Amino acid sequence: MNSQLFSGRTFLITGIADKNSLAMFVAKKIRENGGEVVCTGLGVSPFHKNLSEKAAAFLNKNHNDFVEAVQSELGDTLTAVLDVSIDESIEAFAALMKEKNIQLSGFLHAIAMDKTIRQKEVKPLIEVTKSEFCDTMDVSAYSLIRLTHYMLKYDILQPDSSICSLSYIAAAKVTFHPYRNISIAKAALERITIELADELGRLNRTRVNAIRFSPYMGSKAGNATLTENVVDTSDEISPLGNATPDDLANEVVHLFRPGGRITGEIRHVDGGYNIMG
Ligand SMILES: NC(=O)c1ccc[n+]([C@@H]2O[C@H](COP(=O)([O-])OP(=O)(O)OC[C@H]3O[C@@H](n4cnc5c(N)ncnc54)[C@H](O)[C@@H]3O)[C@@H](O)[C@H]2O)c1
Questions:
Q1: How far apart are the first and last CA of the chain?
Q2: Parallel, antiparallel or unpaired: strands 36-41 and 104-109
Q3: Which residues contact 236 (CB under 8 A, 6 or more apart)?
Q4: Separation CA 77–CA 217 (nearest Å)
Q5: Domain holding 142: CATH number?
Q6: Residue-by-residue DSSP string for the chain
Q7: Which residue positions in the chain have pLDDT lower than 70?
Q8: Which of 89, 213, 249, 271 supports an S-S bond with 29, CB 3.0-4.6 Å?
Q9: Per-residue pLDDT tens for 122-161?
Q10: Residue 4: inside a domain, yes or no?
Q11: Residue 24 included in any domain
Q12: How far is CA 53 from CA 56, 61, 240, in A?
């Protein structure tokens, strides 16, 4: 059902790689509720230096897929390149929003990267290098601080905004399909959520929450890391079965709702997986 809940409000949606990205479901749900979205995708920025041909091709393909998906699923929508591993890219994005006089009522952080998971194989933590650890932490966790920092610096995040990021249960528990390196980054992301909730709530009543979601193979990241067996087992363990991307999007809408009083929460949209022993 369409509503005007977000009438006159614009949200930033990060992390769209294609039409199956979790972030895309959220963007659509915001639109259904009368809101506007600005979408960012990974791509080549003026700040990338010494890119190999392979890396440039990867980024260009990513950006083309992103723009195509946004156009086909959302229609006329402002898109921008954002690589959160490069500070200048985040700042340039915030400056662009300022230049366009866009005021945000919040944003979705749906960004993660871990090169220690390859062909669905997880590298043991004991073998993880310093750069693999730091890169994963940088992109998947620290980026929440940096994005928020530049939005406040450029005054594009309105008071009473709502920020939401995406996590999963492995941030707190070793599950039947243990991730290693990325779990630590998710734990950091959740802690950053809580610390920012305190800082920003006091600063201008901005709310900051995270959602732990069920395993989902539809996205590029999910497909690269999960197996059908993992998704099926999680579905069986969860009392309500795995949650769907639509369930997730509904919860983000709930957290983005104007005037809410929920902050610093790590919520579960996982069909009850988290209560099981
Ligand atoms: N798929 C799942 O099972 C699942 C479950 C729980 C939580 N999550 C989380 O949901 C979020 C979205 O994942 P998804 O499943 O939709 O996969 P996805 O592949 O569609 O999204 C991941 C996004 O991260 C972006 N990204 C990676 N490095 C980046 C960088 N340096 N700068 C900017 N963007 C960068 C990618 O371009 C991509 O858009 C992630 O945080 C993921 O950990 C996923």
A1: 37
A2: unpaired
A3: none
A4: 26
A5: 3.40.50.720
A6: ----TTTT-EEEE----STTSHHHHHHHHHHHTT-EEEEEE----TT--S--HHHHHHHHHHHHHHHHHHHHHH-S-EEEE--TTSHHHHHHHHHHHHHTT--EEEEEE-----TTEETTEEPPGGG--HHHHHHHHIIIIIHHHHHHHHHHHTT-EEEEEEEEEEE-GGGTS--SS---HHHHHHHHHHHHHHHHHHHHHHHH--EEEEEEE----SSHHHHHH--HHHHHHHHHHSTT-PPPHHHHHHHHHHHHSTT----S-EEEESTTGGG--
A7: 1-2
A8: 249
A9: 999 999 999 999 999 999 999 999 999 999 999 999 999 9
A10: no
A11: yes
A12: 5, 12, 46
Strands 157-167, 121-122: pairing kind: unpaired
43 found inside a domain:
yes
Mutation probe of ligand 1 site: the residue of 166, 227, 231, 234 with most atoms within 8 A of C-beta:
166
User: Cα(114) to centroid of ligand 1, in Å?
Assistant: 10
**What is residue 53's predicted lDDT score, i.e. its pLDDT?**
94
270 C-alpha to ligand 1 centroid (Å): 17
* Residue span of the structural domain in which 230 resides: 10-267
Tokens of 129: 């290098």
Which pTM does this prediction carry? 0.98
Count of positions (residues) in the chain: 277
Count CA within 13 A, CB hemisphere, residue 52.
3
Q: How many domains does the chain have?
A: 1
Q: List ligand 1's pocket residues with C-beta within 6 A.
A: 15-17, 21-23, 42, 62, 82-85, 110-113, 139, 166, 168, 213, 215-216, 219-222, 226
215 is a domain residue = yes
